[in-house]
Amino acid sequence: MLWLWSGFLVLILLLLALDLGVFHKRPHAIGAVEALLWTVFWIALSLVFNVFIYFLYEGHWLTAGTGPHAAPDGHTAALQYLTGFLIEKSLSMDNIFVIALIFSYFRVDRKYQHRVLFWGIMGALVLRGVMILAGAALVSRFEWIIYVFGGLLVLTALRMLLHKEEEVHPEKNLVIRAARRIWPVAPTFEEQRFVSAHKINGQRALTPLAIVLLMIESTDVLFAIDSIPAIFAITFDPFIVFTSNVFAILGLRSLYFALAAMLDRFKLLRFSLIFILFFVGGKMLLAEVFHMPTWVSLVVVAVSVTLGIVASMLITKREAVPANPHK
Asked: Which of 131, 172, 279, 280 has an alpha carbon 20 to 30 Å from 287's alpha carbon atom?
């Protein structure tokens, strides 16, 4: 399995190097068409990798599918990967709303937003990798931890239901407060620099863009605490959990730019996310008394997201139609 993990990490690093070093070498504002094309590319790549997952586990290549919590065959593994990918992709929508608020709050120029998201995702991959391995180890050693994960998801759903509006409060963020105590912060942006070219009181200073990056990284940790337990309701296989997470995150940047101008049109989508959290959390809490096939979870999540999107578009369209003053 070591070769399998190493090969996957090399693939991801190559993709990220091509992304930043070739396709986005020069900072520019990413338009809707470019963002949609990249979104299609990442989703297509994720589905192609799912085909690889099928043959990998079906043939038990590189000892895949032989661990204590591994999927026993290619069909099961592919279904678990696809369901996990869809859950992570759905829950990342809430992350996109918060990223939009952060960029708006700090007034980050659109042509520098991709760079921030790129390094934010690099950090997210490392953090989530550590959290997934830790979670898998906990599940293997303490089976009751699955009920803790389920309860956490239900509590998160309740919090989202009770707190309707997302807000950004940098002054309350512990990471931002710690960074400001260690380093001075330059008063203005310096293009795409994270470290100022000028010193303040003889010390290197961070730019406001670095503060934005730290804000996004710290909020992603909070989202990971919700989303990673969710996929453990589908599978305990660390490789499937990690790869589905990674591909969901890789497409997050392009999806953000594709939806940035339309986020206010998806007003009801958050209720789909709340339902998914309730559903997955409930599935974990009832694991001992009720076994639900993976394909059922896939259908429930897909239908929930679809209904949220369609309902949001319908209500937005209805609000956009002016009232007839003659009626």
From this structure: 131
Beta-ladder partners of 149? none
Provide the token pair at 62. 């590189």
Q: What gap in Å lies between CA 80 and CA 172, rounded to an integer? A: 38
DSSP state of 73: S
Burial 277-310 (b: 16+ CB within 10 A, else e): bbbbbbbbbeeeeeeeebeebbebbeebbeebbe
Q: How far apart are the C-alpha atoms of 46 and 63, rounded to whole Å?
A: 22
Which residues lie closer than 8 Å to 203 by C-beta, 6 or more apart?
Answer: 183, 184
Residue found by looking up tokens 């708006």 in the block: 104
Per-residue pLDDT tens over the stretch 297-322: 999 999 999 999 899 888 877 776 65
Torsion angle of C-alpha atoms 255, 124, 281, 45, degrees rounded to 10: 50
- Six-digit token pair at 284? 């974990």
- What stretches of the chain show up as alpha helix (H) in DSSP? 2-18, 32-58, 74-106, 110-141, 145-162, 174-182, 208-231, 238-250, 252-259, 269-285, 294-320
Cβ-based neighbour number of residue 25 at 10 Å? 9
Q: Which two tokens stand for residue 265?
A: 């049109």
Per residue in 191-220, pLDDT (tens digit) is 889 999 888 888 889 999 999 999 998 888
